[in-house]
Write a structure and sequence with these properties.
By secondary structure, the protein is mainly α. The chain contains 8 helices and 4 strands. It has a two-stranded antiparallel ribbon with strand order 1-2. The chain has a two-stranded parallel ribbon with strand order 3-4. The longest helix is centred in the first third of the chain and has 35 residues.
Length: 204
């Protein structure tokens, strides 16, 4: 009953209240990022696969500019990352616009993080279980090590979440997520060369 009805009901209520209460912060960040990003906008949009692999557009605050080199190529991420961008990543504030995804039904507050669409054809059958539930803003993998885990470990935790989804597990994940955000644990600002596609190529 929780998985079928109450989880979605709780998502709607909590995401609405969060959007309402956090609207002043969202407005301030939107203004600040619009200025810092030098006209590149405050929001980042990207297609991601959701429940049953249905594609949706995810919303995030944009932490980097669109600055390019003389040949028109984007500069490295670390050079495009703004001070406010670094701050919102550290505080996980870049995820706030996803509350709208939750309210719309694209996502849940808790579930496997939605990854890029290009990864759909490299998952094992077990890893595909991550798409049997709505993706989330936070999840079991995020409270278990976040970016410090290998892709195989993260995807296994996503499968375990899909198997064991329950109200008690969601409460545990929410609690541990709040603690991690307060302590700034598991946040890696600079990108590491541990992309899923690179790792999978090594195993093929």
């Amino acid at each position: 009953m929780y998985k079928i009805f109450f989880k979605r009901f709780i998502d709607i209520i909590l995401s609405f209240l969060a959007l309402l209460l956090l609207s002043p912060i969202i407005l301030i960040l939107w203004t600040w990022l619009t200025i810092a990003n030098k006209g590149a906008g405050a929001f980042f949009f990207q297609e991601r696969p959701g429940k049953d692999e249905k594609i949706f557009k995810i919303y995030k605050f944009k932490s980097m500019t669109d600055e390019r080199d003389s040949e028109g190529n984007l500069l490295p991420d670390i050079k495009r990352l703004t001070k406010i961008g670094r701050f919102i990543r550290k505080m996980s504030l870049d995820e706030l616009p996803q509350l709208w995804n939750v309210f719309k039904g694209d996502m849940s507050l808790i579930g496997p993080r939605p990854l890029l669409t290009r990864y759909l054809n490299v998952y094992t059958d077990r890893e595909k279980m991550r798409h049997s539930v709505r993706p989330g803003i936070t999840g079991l993998a995020q409270i278990s090590g976040r970016n410090g885990l290998s892709w195989a470990q993260r995807l296994e935790l996503d499968a375990q979440y899909a198997e064991k989804l329950s109200f008690i597990l969601d409460v545990k994940i929410i609690y541990k997520t709040i603690i991690k955000v307060i302590k700034h644990e598991g946040v890696i600002i600079e990108k590491k060369e541990n992309y899923l596609d690179i790792e999978r190529k090594k195993t093929i």
